Known about the structure:
This protein is α/β, with parallel strands linked by helices. It has helices spanning about 35-45, 55-60, 95-110, 125-135, 185-190, 195-210, 245-260, 275-290, and strands at about 15, 25-30, 65-70, 120-125, 140-145, 230-235, 260-265.
Amino acid sequence: MDSQTPPEQNLSGVFIIEPTSKHTHSFILLHRTGLTGEEFGKELAEMYLCFDGRNLIQKFPCARFILPTTPPHQPYERDPEWSFDRVDPGYSPAQTTVVRQILYLIEREAQDIPRQNIIIGGCRRSIVLSSLLACNFSIGGFVGLSVYLEHCPPTGTGIESDGEHRENMNTHPGNESNDSVGESLNSLYYSDFDRISRLAAIVREVRHKRKVLGLGTVDIPSENETSINTPIFLGCDETDETSDWHQTLQARGYLRELGYSVSFDVYTEGGRDWAPQQLKDIIDFLQAKVGLNPTNS
């Protein structure tokens, strides 16, 4: 590992499911609040099933699934006078520990496989997106369900769907009426943000994230030292009463403004995580964007 690698971490709470065929890819996934990595692994194997009754582990036997146990969500106590035109105050010690562990796990896996074959993600956590923004390199992909950015600036357009991942947002059962999510914003974003301004924005964002997380190496000089080339999948459930799906939409808008390629879907699953349609869309994303193909048996 190079000098930018986070210090070695205690991996006692990390649950690992080893591949059953030649190891080519790795998933680093965060569980929702209230679980451990091992409990999440059991749910991944027994509860989160695709339409054909198989789970992600069976779909991708070449993949190692790395499931850290993360502490309960502890938001940073923000100064009541803070506003988005000021630098955000930082992250709690628990959040910083999670980011350092994720970056360490990425580098650890990169000793065996290319970074382009590493996927990170999670469900209902903000810190997993912050981890991606703190990377001074790109990885294979990011998958997140009901994830958000804790210190996400308002974008003005971030609460609408770009429709990029799905040609018709009404194709899923229960989505017969989805007027609120709107049409593609591709042309709007790219007419408002030319490449130079987007480049400056992502470099500034990575520098800032690494500074407030205490990761050092904050003088990121170029786009190549960011995670900008990492394709992102985001999904949110507009019928989930336990999360604010508009936060995911706002994060999607901000990431698009920074220049990330974001595939996005809205669901009506009644708050279910890793539901069959969500898994299908994630698998389609991994095939199209990461080149990771599922097995048929």
